[in-house]
Amino acid sequence: MASRLKTLWTRALQNPITFPTTPEEVIPLTSMLDWNQLSQLAITPVVMDPCAGNMAINRTLHQELPLLAERAYLMSNDVDVTHPTEFHFDCVNPDEWTVVPYEVDVFVCSPPFDIIDCIWPYLVMQAKVFTALHVPGDYISNGPPWRRAYWSYLQQEGLAVELRGLPRVKGRGTRRCSWIIVFATTEYKQLFWQAHTDCFTLFT
Known about the structure:
The protein contains 8 helices and 7 strands; from the N terminus they run H-H-H-E-H-H-E-E-H-E-H-E-E-H-E. With 204 residues, the chain is α/β, with parallel strands linked by helices. It has one domain (21-201): Vaccinia Virus protein VP39 (Rossmann fold, 3-Layer(aba) Sandwich), CATH 3.40.50.150. The protein has helices at 2-14, 23-32, 38-41, 56-64, 66-71, 116-126, 145-156, 186-192, and strands at residues 46-49, 73-76, 106-109, 130-136, 160-164, 177-183, 199-201. It has a 7-stranded mixed β-sheet with strand order 2-1-3-4-6-5-7, sandwiched between helices. The termini are far apart. Helix 6 links the parallel strand 3 (106-109) and strand 4 (130-136).
């Protein structure tokens, strides 16, 4: 397993399968979750993007959720030192997370698609409130059996929701992405998720 993770991460660094996340894709996440509840749970909530790249997610959170930006600590990380992030550690390596000085309430990120499987379960375990991942639209439906089984387990536990049909982005053809969101508890899901269904589709 360790060698497979190393191979995936090496491939992702050399030939990353990435699509820059646009504000148009992040804005639905800001409106479908009640972010104001974070301030009720912590004096200074910690929100982190561990694969921040060009900081598009962080900037959009600042623009769309000014109250959150004022009250929360928005951390950013990217293994590529050319990106203007606060940290530059390898988020796939659990040993390197020791540089993060605080427990994280919320993870919001768009990882290179090759390494989503490497970090998704770890982020879910570490997030105190929820984890939101920007993924290909068919990430679950066309995924391997173990990925679909993990998602099914999270759904059965009442922890997982999916925000599908994000706006199309130039350069991706007809491909749309999704947000998959996993809450730490069912109570947090009821508190934050504003839709009446666990799979909400914006566009078809």
